[in-house]
Specification:
The complex is a heterodimer of chains A (153) and B (663). Chain A contains 6 helices and no strands. With 153 residues, chain A is mainly alpha-helical. Chain A has one domain. In chain A, helix 2 packs antiparallel against helix 6. Chain B has 663 residues and is mainly beta. Chain B folds into 3 domains: 439 residues, Methylamine Dehydrogenase, Chain H (7 Propeller), CATH 2.130.10.10; 79 residues, Immunoglobulin-like (Sandwich); 80 residues, Immunoglobulins (Immunoglobulin-like). Chain B contains no helices and 50 strands. Classes of the chains: A mainly alpha (153), B mainly beta (663).
Chain lengths: 153, 663
């Protein structure tokens, strides 16, 4: 069963693909059925329990973001421009720094720098809303925007 | 899907394969025109390891050898449900060929009953029979297979349980029993996502196992949980994670990984947004082999479509080359040291080379390259390119020869130059997905996996294939237990060429294992063996002769004979050929098949018969200007031609071709 966000993503993806010449994905041209976000079982997480970010309240697609023709791995439209993708990567590094040994302070600085270049209003606002001296867990709100725009964790 | 370029041949070391030798690096690629650059000299010789057993394409039959198959793909058991390929990986371990994918069932042959054995199945390496004693139970799709230094089968995929125990994404199995190998403890996790963790590729190099996918933790020995970013390296025997190697891949998944041991670099391909948040690193990047840090200073990879840049597989070739396959319908060969593009192949596009990749024109058909696998001295590139031509235009382009050719599904390239092996055209067909897996075995056979459903069509045969096709050397060992004779040849036609020589041809037989050769015998004792028609029999006395054709398979089973009588003893005279048939028309026959009509030829003495060819292969003859090809398959384009013969054996040139697709 598709999630609400997944269903919307599938519809938008279909619309995007129809206007694009060439190969629309891993199927032959003209016969390809656009991918949908497949419903999957909960992960078997045997490590430290965390709340999956992709189940957080969806953030609406940002109409200010550049129209993207690319997709993520499961076929959802990729609504992040290059700067937005970079910002999301920095957000992931910051959020996961406690378990990966990353430098939280440096990643937050890089995140704030990277997000200035994106056209995504929602992403910029999410980063701006981070408190000074934010903790790693605070970055979850940024990643919620990222995943709603096709970024996968 | 990929393999290491390294100094060890660990993946099949446990197989104790005799007779395999490391291929010597080939010479540098021949220079090709822009945008391809002249290759730089390698900084040092790269010793090439051997992963899967080598195959000899000069002896390989393009007609598949019969084997059991897999079927009923269930895309819902994957996250990438748009790809309905039954098979995703094939690998020999011990005396078995393991096939992994999203299939639910296995089947012995076309007439057998399907048996439920989802996602991973084993087949006898010699007979191709399903091994019902090996019943691993996984709950979701398998994407990658490799062999550990100790001989265990390493399995990567999207499963969460194996044989009833929690084993998300990764497991080692004993290939003899298919039980879980408890000494290899690693699994993967993806706790921040609602999607399952998946392992898309496995490569064993230098005693290390490299795993790639979309996971974010590795669970190792003693239940350690370590955060990673979609790629990890563990000890291939103990499973101990190498925490110094930490590539920071973000976005979606890594689908292909290739390990360049001499350069201490690792190549990554997939759907990811970047490595270490660096610009220009989406979907393909090279990282340091020690730390996983991004390798810098490499030439940016040219792309023929700015919106479609996904990579499905990366592979090391020989002579310091790396292959990158993916969107858009593109397989590139790069200099492993500099990143320069040295050669490329694509399907369904033109104009890329002339415009230095600034503009490419989609001409239809073709498909993304979704698997690149080096086996011996070849790199095999597979794509979902089901049509080898559009209209009258071939769809496969090679920058090495600068020519378009009619190739589809799976191509073979010289590993050091990306020179296409033109004669390699596997006679197998499927529905949509094309080739996703390539493997080989110690009998010298090649396997191609995908959504294949049939084989032998180009040779006028109708063979059952299901998911996985096996191509073996023409002189393959006799399959044990084959007691079924081939079907009898049909449509035997003989022409007296004069001087005691008869020319004979026929429509081919079919066989469960494969026809080895035909025997053409003439009353009076003359006979000849031939791999295919037409065949010439000499020493035939004047009078009346009966010509009988039988088919023999590799096990020595002989078919019933098909015979025709002919007056012999012609001494010469008529040397003029008939005129070519004209007005060839093809339509669907009411009773099935293709109905052909044409305008009769003329001849100085008299037309004796017409020979009918489907896709260049003789399929039958008629004494009148009409014939029905009742065996014509539906659903694919068929091209017919007809030629006339006279009583003296003279033949006309072929008629203009006519193409038809039957519903």
């Amino acid at each position: 069963m598709l999630s609400k966000r997944g269903a919307a993503a599938a519809l938008l993806f279909t619309a995007l693909v129809l206007g694009v010449a060439g190969c629309s994905g891993p199927a032959d041209d003209g016969t390809h059925t656009p991918a949908t976000a497949s419903a999957t079982a909960a992960p078997t997480a045997t490590g430290p329990a965390v709340q999956p970010i992709e189940t957080a309240t969806p953030v609406a697609f940002d109409r200010d973001a550049a129209t993207a023709k690319a997709r993520n791995e499961i076929g959802e439209p990729w609504r992040l421009d290059a700067a937005g993708a970079t910002a999301c990567a920095r957000a992931e590094f910051a959020f996961r720094s406690p378990e990966t040994g990353g430098d939280l302070t440096a990643q937050l600085e890089q995140l704030r720098s990277a997000v200035r270049k994106t056209k995504s209003t929602a992403l910029r606002e999410a980063v701006t809303a981070l408190p000074a001296g934010a903790a790693a867990t605070d970055v979850r709100s940024v990643l919620e925007v990222c995943t709603a725009m096709g970024y996968q964790l | 899907m990929s393999r290491p370029l390294g100094r060890v041949a660990l993946a099949v070391a446990a197989l104790a394969v005799a007779g395999l030798s490391a291929a010597a690096p080939t010479a540098s690629a021949a220079p090709v025109a822009a945008p391809v650059v002249a290759p730089a000299a390698p900084p040092r010789a790269a010793t090439v390891g051997v992963d899967q057993p080598a195959v000899d394409l000069s002896t390989l039959s393009m007609i598949p050898t019969a084997m059991a198959g897999v079927l009923n793909p269930d895309p819902a058991r994957t996250q990438t449900s748009s790809i309905a390929s039954s098979v995703w990986s094939v690998r020999q371990a011990g005396t078995k060929i393991f096939v992994g994918g999203m299939f639910l069932d296995v089947k012995a042959d076309a007439a057998a009953t399907a048996v439920r054995q989802p996602f991973l199945a084993a087949f006898d390496v010699t007979t191709g029979a399903w091994d019902s004693s090996c019943r691993p139970a996984l709950d979701n799709a398998v994407y990658a297979l490799a062999v550990s230094p100790t001989g265990s089968l390493l399995v990567g995929g999207e499963f969460t349980t194996v044989n009833g125990a929690a084993r998300p994404g990764l497991v080692a199995l004993d290939p003899a029993t298919c039980a879980v190998d408890p000494t290899f403890p690693d699994t993967v996790e993806r706790p921040y996502s609602t999607q399952r963790a998946a392992v898309r590729d496995l490569v064993v190099a230098d005693g290390k196992l490299y795993l790639a996918g979309n996971f974010s933790r590795v669970t190792g020995p003693n239940s350690t949980h370590t955060g990673v970013f979609k790629v990890a390296r563990v000890d291939a025997t103990t499973g101990k994670l190498d925490t110094t190697f930490k590539p920071e891949v973000t976005g979606s998944g890594v689908w292909g990984i290739a390990v360049d041991v001499p350069r201490n670099r690792v190549h990554l391909g997939g759907w990811f947004s970047g490595v270490a948040a660096a610009s220009g690193t989406s979907n393909y990047a090279v990282v340091d082999g020690t730390t996983g840090a991004l390798a810098t200073g490499l030439t940016a990879r040219p792309r023929n479509n700015t919106a479609r840049t996904e990579v499905y597989d990366v592979e090391l070739g020989t002579a310091d080359r790396v292959y990158v396959g993916g969107s858009e319908h593109l397989l590139q060969m790069l200099d492993a040291g500099t990143g320069d593009q040295l050669a490329f192949s694509h399907t369904g596009y033109n104009g890329c080379e002339a415009t230095r990749f600034t503009w490419c024109n989609y001409i239809g058909a073709g498909g993304d390259f979704q698997v690149a696998e080096r086996i011996g001295k070849y790199v095999f590139g597979g794509c979902h390119c089901n049509d080898d031509y559009v209209g009258t235009s071939p769809t496969h382009y090679s920058s090495v020869t600068k020519t378009f050719t009619k190739h589809k599904h799976l191509m073979a390239y010289e590993a050091g130059t990306e020179t296409l092996v033109d004669s390699f055209r596997p006679d197998v067909d499927g529905a949509v997905e094309g080739a996703w897996a390539v493997g080989s075995d110690t009998n010298g056979c090649l396997y191609v996996g995908g959504d294949y459903t049939k084989g032998g069509a180009a040779a006028g045969r109708s063979m059952w294939v299901s998911g996985i096709a096996k191509l073996c050397p023409k002189a393959a060992p006799k399959p044990a237990g084959d007691t079924t004779a081939p079907t009898a040849p049909k449509n035997v036609e003989a022409v007296d060429l004069g001087g005691g020589v008869l020319q004979v041809q026929w429509t081919d037989s079919t066989d469960a294992v494969g026809v080895d050769h035909y025997r053409v015998a003439v009353t009076g004792g003359a006979s000849v063996d031939a791999a295919a028609g037409p065949a010439k029999v000499t020493g035939v006395p004047a009078g009346t002769a009966t010509v009988t054709v039988t088919a023999l398979d590799a096990a020595g089973n002989v078919s019933a004979g098909a015979a025709v009588s002919i007056a012999t003893g012609r001494t010469g005279g008529d040397t003029a050929s008939p005129t070519a048939p004209t007005g060839l028309a093809v339509s669907a026959a009411a009773a099935g098949g293709a109905a052909l009509t044409w305008t009769a030829s003329t001849d100085a003495v008299g037309v004796k018969s017409y020979l009918v060819y489907r896709d260049g292969t003789y399929v039958g003859w008629s004494a009148t200007p009409a014939w029905t090809d009742s065996a014509a398959p539906a659903g694919s384009a068929l091209t017919y031609t007809v030629r006339a013969t006279d009583a003296a054996g003279n033949r006309s040139v072929k008629s203009a071709p006519v193409t038809v697709t039957l519903k």
